[in-house]
Amino acid sequence: MIKANVKADFPILHRQINDEPMVYLDNAATSQKPRMVIDRVTEYYFQQNANVHRGVSSLSMAATDEYEAARQAVSDFIHAEGPDNVVFTRSTTESLNWIASGYADSVLQPGDEIVITVAEHHSNIVPWQQVAKRHHAKLKYIRLNACGRLDLIDAKHQITDRTKIVAINHVSNVMGAENPVAKVSHLAHQHGAVMVVDAAQSAPHMPIDVQALDADFLAFSGHKMLAPTGIGVLYGKQAVLAEMNPVQFGGEMIDEVTQQTATFQKSPLKFEAGTPNIAGAIGLHAAINYLSAMGMESIHDHDLQLTTRCIERLRQLGGVTIYGDSDPANHNGVVTFNVAGIHPHDVATGLDMEGIEVRAGHHCAQPLMDVLGVESTVRASFYFYNDATDVDRFIDALSKVKEFFTDGLS
Ligand code: PMP
What we know:
By secondary structure, the chain is of the alpha/beta class. It contains 13 helices and 17 strands.
């Protein structure tokens, strides 16, 4: 159960936009931060700031302990084998780029294949395009079924013995559809390919078990799950992390340096060159504590209730095309739509006038927009601090926008 006064924990949710109380429905882009995360980061800078993994000073050792405790918390949160499987990065984007440049770059041969889906975020497309180009490898796409999930039958056709990497989203940032990751991992492994999971939209909204998913790599961003920006996670199984090369070089990641050569630390430190985002990792730890106290199952159930209410009310409104599954249970807090005859940017601007913050655009998923036959859409995305009143305020505002652009002008 989500506690009744949860909004009280989020100072920003009490502000006004255009003289209206704000309703924040752009959670798929980034989440808001609870006071306890903000306070924890402030406390770190007030009382604990020091560099990590350096020296024997009390302050530095305490900061190192906090940073490594954050790694352990992430490991527990995603049911990893242990903290050594967790590499801190800047974001999902950085994690995926590192897999492409540090791992795929050293295993791909001409004629090999990378298989993704047509519903990927650009950060799970462009790094693969680049590495495929460098090695004359082929980038192949799994199509979607009518529910907006990847089509398992097509996945069986696309994944072959030439496939080295399969990289798919766990939950789509456009349609909210959850992909059958464990089944695709099984397929990938049958063909000797490595499974990469983009969990940017799932980690904030549902329990994650990397071992049950049998993911070789999994990536997500702290900022979509209450933590500060600039901290992300790259999970890897020990075998693939050992094979993966560091992408950045410098202090802290080395074992020994001579004038001409260097040896590196073991994973995860071999990937974390230079001073890491210590405050970000500590903020992520606080965020994980908050989410765990709330319960990821409760958060998932709450998302479902809100998306169901939202989709039902959008249908009642009429003239609205909703993308993805007709079953609200397969939307995971994300509702993407267009209103007949009104440009998505006009819809979003009209909603903003009423204090409702949504996103309009291609959502960094242009290949998916092509498949959907649109250039852009409007997206309302929910989190556990949204409630039924937020859904109703959004629908009432959308109704006004619709009236303004259609009846109001005719
Ligand atoms: N993948 C998905 C599915 C996403 O939704 C996002 C963020 N919109 C990303 C990757 C990239 O995340 P970030 O910008 O935090 O690197």
